[in-house]
């Protein structure tokens, strides 16, 4: 009888009473953040996680949604789109968002983490890296050694900006840095708005520096040190149930979602192209993780 009466109460009140039917949906956002991605190597972007996020927030009776972030960063656009989607869903469904950091929430990964009403990290997690980076290679000397000449014809003087086969121009570099500063300021404003007076002033806060979860708590980048299960049970009761919201499985059992193309049938060229793209994506992601020492 008591159990049936509890079910008639609002979800948040049931949580406070320690009801055994409190379920917290969990969405795991992992990997490098990029608009690309294949069935062989999915990446994290709005398209690949939007359906899972919507499903989690639509879970009836849940007072909150938990999000696990494990990302070294990547596309600032996709990072901000995911951040905005989480905040919009939180407002639409009137549910709290609890973010939990695994190995890292760095750069774009930390931007996504800021979508949480609170952030919990392991003491050994990597957090921060609030900055913007652009990296490429220059092949001018290489093509000269093998006797190759680069010929570029444009309609518009800026169409060949930062061509890796041509010498760098100071004007091109200055233009790129101006763009980076603008994007960096957007990132800084988002962090300040999200974290508010919890942030502690530090000379390296917005320089791209990153810290452990323990130091991140001292700086106000995270709120608590702990783990998902213990934290949620402390908030909503020992009988709180955790429900992982997963993506559908696609080719070869890989988890895929909207926004990630899949290969069907036995098209040899498509399979080869997908595999090659997956290898490149994996290499790029490895570089992002290596930057954090992971």
Please tell me about this protein's structure:
The protein is of the alpha/beta class. The protein has a single domain, classed as 2-enoyl-CoA Hydratase, Chain A, domain 1 (Alpha-Beta Complex), CATH 3.90.226. Helices cover 41% and strands 16% of the residues. It has 10 helices and 10 strands. The protein has helices spanning 2-7, 11-16, 46-57, 76-93, 108-113, 140-145, 170-195, 213-219, 228-236, 268-291; strands spanning 23-30, 64-71, 96-106, 118-121, 126-128, 210-212, 224-225, 241-244, 248-249, 255-256. The strands form 2 sheets. Strands 1, 2, 3, 4, 5, 6, 7 and 8 form an 8-stranded mixed β-sheet that branches. It has a two-stranded antiparallel ribbon with strand order 9-10. The longest helix has 26 residues, at 170-195. Residues 256-266 and 270-277 have low confidence and may be disordered.
Provide a count of the helices.
10
The assigned structural class equals alpha/beta
Mean pLDDT: 82
Anisotropy-based shape:
elongated
The ordered H/E elements are: HHEHEHEHEEHHEHEHEEEH
CATH fold-level assignment: 2-enoyl-CoA Hydratase, Chain A, domain 1
Give the total of beta strands: 10
Rounded to an integer in angstroms, the radius of gyration calculated over CA atoms is: 22 Å
Q: What is the distance, rounded to the nearest whole angstrom, between the alpha carbons of the first and last residues?
A: 52 Å
Poorly predicted runs: 256-266, 270-277
């Amino acid at each position: 009888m008591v159990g049936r009466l509890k079910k008639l109460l609002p979800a948040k009140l049931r949580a406070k009473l320690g009801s055994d039917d409190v379920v917290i949906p969990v969405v795991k956002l992992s990997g490098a953040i990029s608009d690309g991605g294949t069935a062989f190597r999915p990446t994290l972007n709005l398209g690949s996680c939007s359906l899972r996020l919507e499903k989690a927030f639509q879970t009836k009776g849940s007072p909150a949604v938990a999000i696990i972030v494990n990302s070294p960063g990547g596309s600032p656009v996709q990072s901000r789109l995911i951040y905005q989607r989480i905040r919009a869903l939180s407002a639409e469904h009137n549910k709290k968002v609890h973010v939990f950091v695994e190995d890292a929430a760095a750069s774009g990964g930390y931007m996504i983490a800021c979508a949480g009403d609170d952030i919990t990290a392991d003491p050994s997690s990597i957090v921060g890296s609030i900055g913007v980076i652009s990296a490429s290679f220059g092949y001018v000397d290489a093509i000269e050694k093998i006797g190759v000449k680069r010929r570029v014809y444009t309609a518009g003087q800026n169409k060949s900006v930062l061509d890796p086969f041509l010498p760098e121009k100071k004007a091109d570099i200055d233009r790129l840095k101006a763009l980076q500063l603008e994007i960096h300021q957007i990132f800084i404003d988002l962090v300040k708005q999200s974290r508010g007076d919890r942030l502690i002033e530090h000379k390296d806060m917005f320089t791209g520096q990153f810290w452990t979860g323990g130091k991140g708590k001292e700086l106000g980048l995270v709120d608590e040190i702990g783990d998902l299960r213990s934290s949620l049970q402390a908030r909503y009761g020992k009988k709180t149930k955790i429900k992982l919201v997963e993506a559908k499985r696609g080719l070869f059992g890989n988890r895929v979602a909207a926004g990630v193309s899949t290969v069907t049938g036995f098209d040899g060229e498509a399979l080869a192209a997908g595999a090659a793209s997956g290898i490149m994506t994996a290499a790029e992601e490895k570089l992002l993780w290596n930057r954090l020492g992971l």
